[in-house]
Amino acid sequence: MLDLCAGARQEIAIEQYIFSRHGIGAELLDVLTERARQGVRVRVLADAFGSKFLFKSPKVHDLQRAGGEVRHFHGYKRVLRHPTRLLNRLHRKTVICDNRSVLTGGTCFLPRMEDWRDTMVRVNGGVARQAAQCFEETWRYTEGESPFPHDPESKAPADQPDGWRYLVSSPFPSSRRDYYDLLLERIEQAEGKISFVTPYLLPVRRYWDALRPAIERGVRVRLIIPAKSDHTSVDLAGRIFVHSMKHAGVEVYGYEPTMVHAKLALIDEQFSAVGSFNLGIDSFKMNLEGAVVTGSKRFAAALSEQIERDLAQSRRL
């Protein structure tokens, strides 16, 4: 990420839920400030709740003095006007450089996450332009425009093979639900194997209802979650779903070496997704999320190898 931003020549756009003013966050702010001083347009959009200590930090002031722009998503003024917006958080973790490269996945810019098990993916080309368009929609929303008009004609860019796409999801009625609609469709079409990795497990009924028929028709479903996450209350609630899933035939594994924070989906070695989504009601119903999805068999093989390595360090629950 640091190298990607340091190499930017025209523009850097970042969306992040937790952007710390310390550690990796401070390192990144230094890089962004240096780029801004060289004439690169730098924009940072961070969640007002997850990144609440960022906005008054000296390094952010340095970035702004260099010409960079830093905004918060759903700050206190907007929440006071619309209290329900408190539940709607910017949960994406996306870095876009020069509209040519996008880096996205599950990683926040927070020192205590440095030894967590996580996954990011970098894609060049049309996918980056799709991510940039989504960033622009969210950026304009912070200026007071209507939430994210959905473009029904949006398709995979022609220069990207294997259906590479950047898909998003958000809770607003007029906005996109692309990622979750596609994920549900792929679950319903699954024939052989479904693998999920998620740090938090509080799924909505719609997806659980789609998994049951898949299991009944013989699809093997595997799920990797942390053996112990950073949220004890979520673990306790999630164990209810673990019990139900195990009873229905889902293979549930707890990753033991450290906190697993990756958010991955792999279906029939033909559909792969890496993004910010959790298998939880927050991601399904409340947050703004993003993911890179593809039908690339080569990428599916790489992701499958990664999942198998994680399974080897997990215990069956």
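Above is the first protein from milestone M3; the second protein from the same milestone is given next.
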Amino acid sequence: MGSKGLEMARAKMQDAGVDPVAIDTFAHYYRLLEHGETGMIAESTISPLEMPALADVEVSDEVAAEAIRTTVVIKLNGGLGTSMGMDRAKSLLCVRRGLSFLDIIARQVLHLRKVYDATLPLVFMNSFRTSADTMAALARYQDLQVDGLPLEFLQNKVPKLLLSNLVPASFPKNPDLEWCPPGHGDLYTALRGTGLLGRLRDAGFRHVFVSNSDNLGAVPDARVAGWFAASGAPFAIEAVRRTSSDRKGGHFAQRKADGRIVLRESAQTLDADLDALADLDRHRFTSTNNLWFDLDAMTEALDARQGILGLPMIRNVKHLDPVDPTTPEVVQIETAMGAAIEIFEGARTIEVGRDRFVPVKTTNDLLVLRSDIYDLGRDFVLDQASEGVPFVDLDSDFYKLVRDFDKRFPDGAPSLREATSLVVDGDVTFGRGVRVVGDVAIKAPSARRIEASAVLAADA
């Protein structure tokens, strides 16, 4: 018999029809939380990690083609884009030529099927908030779903817990806010609970490629598939060199106790270790959240643990209503899917180019993606057309929300191919065909409009 809070949470999840394995997994983390577990990874327990680069690896065309033919693609698609003011799947955002993230993902996969004569199933892990919109948007791609396999499966949901006493939060005004996703580490629980893991194995597939739907650089590349298949590794993650924009983000390291690779997120870093977290010379690699796993190895690991991989817990404290700081503080129990790397002996990481990591987390990222920094080829793969990707920082008072952002770029994004940085302080609207050259900083004490075809260079 558990504590009162856990029993209340169990009952709430059972009443909501949550999968029993997901309930047991939640209970596992609840007990850790109750006993003071924070999921922190101290700097003293880890060492920096080195790794090979994909650019230095030889993969034959035959190995690459065979690997992609036994691969399944899963896109994480549970996010609403609430930080950008959206209330539907972020992947519905228009990004290029009238196409959304979903359009481009679907067309990337359909193109690769033809090139490699591959089945290459595409499956979305949706949340209960993104499922309907996503499936409606994908209905136009009648050949996308593979016979015998679903086009989506749903991630689980868990109750938010009041920070004060760890009982499930109640919010009658908006009951949906009583729930949260348990982080993308729920991928493995949901795959098992829905039976999809077994169905993929039964259909003869060997490998799974997983990535975020808001990262259009995460194409199911045959060369990476070939490297993973030839490595014989049970699990692997693509990594990139950290830049100044990654200082506060997670990184890879090697655990001193057993030599296993670990992924330390910022929420798992002690205050005393924040300088080490930000040290780009010490911890040089961050995760793209593009990961690969062997279906047999994952099944064996889950079976051996009764469905609970035991990923490191992330204790996330937020307000019950994320946009209302007057609502009570709650604990969201989460896990990260990349943390599964420490579960598997022989897991690997490989350094890939930054072109495989083009996430859109803010409207700053969205402006870069909508600009001419990238060309969208006939294969629907993003090709970087400039030497570098400029740093963009738009005033959050005027650009943070998509609706406000769109108002200030009514005729499209400016040209950024010649830009090194664009910093906007104030309310600025851009006309059609504006060019940004070099380092540009715009300070607008009052509302300002940049005229069409203007060239911005140095301080404007």
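Note on the second protein: The chain has 13 helices and 23 strands.
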